[in-house]
Amino acid sequence: MLSNKKLENSLVQCITDHKESIYRLAYSYVRNSEDALDIVQESIHKAFSSAASLKNPDAMKSWFYRIVVNTSLDFLRKQKRIQLMDEETLESYSQGMPDVYQNIDLEKALEELPVKYRSVVVLRYFEDLKIEEIAEVLDENINTVKTRLYQALRVLRVKLNDDSYVEV
């Protein structure tokens, strides 16, 4: 087990290394830059307050992602609203490669997905997490994550195919 000081240093390093991903994850839920920053700040506070409860320091990234997801969901429950995505604001905060949607239909289809499906898709394809890591972050069974990912992709495929027929 790590000492408190080493644990805090590891947590700071984890947050620093993944700050863009953490922000994008929060933003994918709330669709508002200020709210996403508030969620990140609150998540950092929660992480430092409960760092002693971390059983496996090697799983710090997925542990912290779970805090961000739960904080985001708590925020949505309290606010009972979802903001439209403001791509320019997101890009202004990102220092890494911005996520640019090549297809406006894909963006719209992602926004229309239920949160449980959108979460899996965002974590898998935008945050590049493995199925096992997603299951850990969302505190779900691996098979549940696989099923949700499969269903989300099927829904997206149907929506995108239907939309393309309408436009042609």
TrEMBL record:
Domain RNA polymerase sigma-70 region: 15-81
UniProt-recorded Gene Ontology molecular function terms: DNA binding; sigma factor activity
Highest taxon above the source species: Bacteria
Swiss-Prot/TrEMBL keywords: Sigma factor, Transcription, Transcription regulation
Annotated ranges, domain RNA polymerase sigma factor 70 region 4 type: 105-154
UniProt-listed Pfam families: Sigma70_r2, Sigma70_r4_2
Keyword Transcription: yes
UniProt cross-references to InterPro entries, sorted A to Z: RNA_pol_sigma-70-like, RNA_pol_sigma-70_dom, RNA_pol_sigma70_r2, RNA_pol_sigma70_r4_t2, RNA_pol_sigma_r2, RNA_pol_sigma_r3/r4-like, WH-like_DNA-bd_sf
A GO biological process held by the record: DNA-templated transcription initiation
Residue intervals passing through the bilayer: none
Keyword Calcium: no
Listed SUPFAM superfamilies: Sigma2 domain of RNA polymerase sigma factors, Sigma3 and sigma4 domains of RNA polymerase sigma factors
Family, as annotated: Belongs to the sigma-70 factor family. ECF subfamily.
Matches recorded under PANTHER family: RNA POLYMERASE ECF-TYPE SIGMA FACTO, RNA POLYMERASE SIGMA FACTOR SIGV
Descriptive protein name: RNA polymerase subunit sigma-70
